[in-house]
Amino acid sequence: VGNIFVVSLSVADLVVAVYPYPLILSAIFHNGWTLGNIHCQVSGFLMGLSVIGSIFNITVIAINRYCYICHSLRYDKLFNLKNTCCYLCLTWIFTVVAIVPNFFVGSLKYDPRIYSCTFAQTVSTSYTITVVVVHFLVPLSIVSFCYLRIWILVIQVKHRVRQDSRQKLRAADVRNFLTMFVVFVLFAVCWGPLNFIGLAVSINPSEVAPKIPEWLFVLSYFMAYFNSCLNAVIYGLLNQNFRKEYKRILLTLWTPRLLFVDVSKGVTEGLKSKPSPVVTNNNQAEIHL
């Protein structure tokens, strides 16, 4: 069930490609925004939905991995299918709630420096500080705590510090944890500069904002949104299952007839195979690294 959050994260990454990015391309070609205020507001809303949805999903993934590795005996109860779906719904509800105040503050505006409608950092000092704290610093702290606890446990198990403990780790669990840890680190690196610029500007907008070089703001902005396409690359580099599926998809696109062969083969094997016994996370927790 933990994979549900990975799918949710990929949906958040894809949101910007569906609507905002084509409008940004249009603004670049026309050297300005020509689509009206409604499209500007919708584009800014979806951009925020993608950004905040990404960081909130990364936070929930970190909590999920923390519970799975550090509290494996209670994981099945905490993250059964019903609870996981509830957590997922709450994640997206909080995401929408976090974006809605932008419409009341009037902070979604067109920025000619980046050819897009986005959050304007100079509209309100208190609101900008709140955005940086709630949307970046707090999730960053939660994720850092979760991954720090996981690292401590991994080191203890590796060096057999906790031989009396029932918690044992599989190599696959550690690899999956490392993949999501890299996703988190790259998110922090990509989004850190833009958030710190926003925090600096919010302290004294009239004096600090003019001193921020345009190239630095543009670089930090596109560096932040470049993060949306990095996750798929990370999965491909660090996860064998993703690499195998990427290869299969590419081969299928190159030779479409392979798709029908794979489908028919999968149906045949499914009819011949017997159902395997259920393996719970509690059983897996007893396996040595």
TrEMBL record:
GO molecular function terms attached to this record: melatonin binding; melatonin receptor activity
Name of the protein this chain belongs to: G-protein coupled receptors family 1 profile domain-containing protein
Organism of this sequence: Pelodiscus sinensis (Chinese softshell turtle)
Cellular compartments annotated: Cell membrane
Family indicated by similarity: Belongs to the G-protein coupled receptor 1 family.
Membrane protein topology class: Multi-pass membrane protein
Keyword check for Transmembrane: yes
Sorted UniProt keywords: Cell membrane, Disulfide bond, G-protein coupled receptor, Membrane, Receptor, Transducer, Transmembrane, Transmembrane helix
Organismal lineage: Eukaryota, Metazoa, Chordata, Craniata, Vertebrata
Record Pfam families: 7tm_1
Gene Ontology biological process terms from the UniProt entry: negative regulation of D-glucose import; negative regulation of glycolytic process
Subcellular location, principal: membrane
Job of this protein: High affinity receptor for melatonin. The activity of this receptor is mediated by pertussis toxin sensitive G proteins that inhibits adenylate cyclase activity.
Taxonomic superkingdom: Eukaryota
Keyword Transmembrane in annotation: yes
Residue ranges occupied by any G-protein coupled receptors family 1 profile domain in the UniProt entry: 1-235
A GO CC term attached to the entry: plasma membrane
Transmembrane residue ranges: 7-30, 42-63, 84-105, 125-155, 176-203, 215-238
